């Protein structure tokens, strides 16, 4: 009998190939691997989270630079839509809060007669490929290394695993464009303006303990990290999170000896980005704030789970430190860890986090109190 994680991957592979065979008669003939030709309208799918949308920004800018005549729309989940709205490369952002809404949107979008639909996901991409067909894209571009190639007209070459920003650059190259390695959030505000404007020499450390995928660390350990950074470095500790994070954040704060502040549930997305821009360090589980910090060049210590590839989801920015523990069941692709003790997360100790954070903060103090 297959182990459960191997069974999950095998089931995914079988589903991909079944969908590919079932939809092949409706997919249309590939246009080949040549030039995309003149593009009048493009739809980019971003059916996932805030961090994924942040990583897509260089692709959008590169696509517009390579095809300036093209009107680029995005179909995105609500959180991702907030990141994409207002970007100079994007004409409009369509929010689809659920898969049922996706189907309605897909059928309605057929009337747009898109020349090109791009699904930049490198895993879990089959739903987006099916939406590309539903929306009637003349050319459909995406990855297919896990099956689903018959759903596309143009496949992004898969040269093996690489960090997230590298995979996004490969999508851009397939579209005849060259994407930057770091996202630019300037369309959302002048967040870089917070640098150097700090009047206090006290260091500010942000703690982001929760993520939507539920691969999280221990609340008690976050409290211990906050206390030690406050004690050893005189840092002010501020918690981040959405409204759903408030109960956990308040439990952590009550478990701390040191004073702390919280913005959890009190900020809009832009205000949260502004908070991150003013940090000397962010300590976070693998979630949207990680990618926002990288875009803003804010140092981050990331506690990464073992659900996904440690190459793809590993370190990809100069100022981030990624803590991950190799376990035999990784990558499992599961939303919740079934292994007692959750070793991929809980084998990361308080000392590991404090040591990594301490190196950043010590260098910061040595340089005059700002990163």
Primary descriptors:
six-stranded parallel β-sheet; Rossmann fold; 371 residues; alpha/beta; 13% strand; single chain
Q: Describe it for me?
A:
The protein has 371 residues and is of the alpha/beta class. The protein folds into two domains: 164 residues, 3-Layer(aba) Sandwich (Rossmann fold); 178 residues, 3-Layer(aba) Sandwich (Rossmann fold), CATH 3.40.50.2000. It has twelve helices and twelve strands. The strands form two sheets. It has a six-stranded parallel beta sheet with strand order 3-2-1-4-5-6, sandwiched between helices. Strands 9-8-7-10-11-12 form a six-stranded parallel beta sheet, sandwiched between helices. β7, α7 and β8 form a beta-alpha-beta unit. α2 runs parallel beside α6, α2 packs across α10 and α7 packs parallel to α12. It is globular. The N terminus is likely disordered.
Distance between the termini: 52 Å
Q: Going across the biggest sheet, name each strand in turn.
A: 3-2-1-4-5-6
> pLDDT average, as an integer?
86
Instruction: Quickly count the helices.
Output: 12
User: What is the C-alpha radius of gyration, as a whole number of Å?
Assistant: 21 Å
Q: Do you know the CATH topology of the largest domain?
A: Rossmann fold
Proportion of residues in helical segments: 25-40%
Low-pLDDT residue intervals, each spanning 5 or more residues: 1-10, 23-33
How many separate structural domains? 2
CATH class descriptor of the largest domain = Alpha Beta
Derived from helix and strand composition plus strand pairing, the structural class reads alpha/beta
Overall outline:
globular
According to CATH, the homologous superfamily of the largest domain is: Glycogen Phosphorylase B
**Biggest sheet character:** 6 strands, parallel
Number of strands: 12
Helix and strand sequence: HEHEHEHEHEEHEHEHEHEHEEHH
Strand content: 5-15%
Give the CATH architecture of the largest domain: 3-Layer(aba) Sandwich
């Amino acid at each position: 009998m297959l182990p459960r994680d191997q069974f999950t991957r095998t089931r995914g592979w079988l589903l991909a190939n079944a969908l590919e065979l079932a939809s092949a008669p409706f997919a249309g003939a590939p246009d080949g691997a040549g030039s995309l030709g003149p593009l009048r309208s493009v739809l980019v799918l971003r059916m996932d989270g805030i961090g994924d949308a942040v990583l897509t920004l260089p692709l959008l800018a590169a696509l517009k630079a390579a095809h300036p005549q093209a009107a680029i729309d995005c179909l995105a989940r609500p959180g991702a839509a907030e990141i994409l709205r207002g970007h100079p490369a994007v004409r409009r952002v369509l929010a689809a809060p659920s898969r049922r809404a996706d189907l309605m949107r897909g059928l309605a979008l057929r009337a747009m007669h898109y020349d090109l639909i791009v699904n930049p996901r490198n895993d879990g991409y089959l739903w987006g490929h099916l939406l590309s067909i539903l929306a009637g894209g003349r050319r459909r571009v995406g990855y297919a290394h896990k099956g689903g190639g018959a759903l596309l007209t143009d496949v992004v070459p898969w040269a093996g695993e690489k960090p997230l920003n590298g995979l996004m650059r490969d999508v851009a190259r397939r579209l005849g464009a060259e994407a930057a390695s770091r996202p630019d959030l300037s369309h959302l505000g002048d967040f870089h303006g917070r640098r150097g404007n700090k009047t206090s020499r006290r260091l500010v450390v942000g703690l982001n303990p929760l993520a939507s995928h539920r691969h999280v660390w221990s609340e008690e350990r976050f409290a211990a990290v906050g206390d030690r950074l406050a004690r050893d470095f005189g840092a002010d500790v501020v918690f981040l999170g959405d409204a759903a994070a408030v109960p956990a954040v308040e439990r952590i704060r009550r478990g701390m000896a040191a004073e702390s502040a919280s913005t959890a549930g009190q900020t809009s997305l832009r205000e949260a980005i502004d908070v991150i821009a003013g940090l000397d360090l962010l300590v976070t589980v693998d979630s949207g704030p990680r990618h926002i910090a990288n875009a803003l060049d804010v140092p981050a210590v990331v506690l990464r789970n073992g659900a996904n590839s440690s190459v793809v989801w590993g370190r990809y920015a100069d100022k981030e430190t990624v803590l991950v523990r190799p376990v035999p069941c990784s990558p499992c692709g599961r939303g919740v860890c079934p292994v007692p003790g959750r070793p991929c997360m809980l084998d990361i100790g308080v000392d590991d986090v404090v040591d990594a954070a301490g190196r950043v903060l010590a260098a910061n103090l040595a340089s005059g109190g700002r990163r």
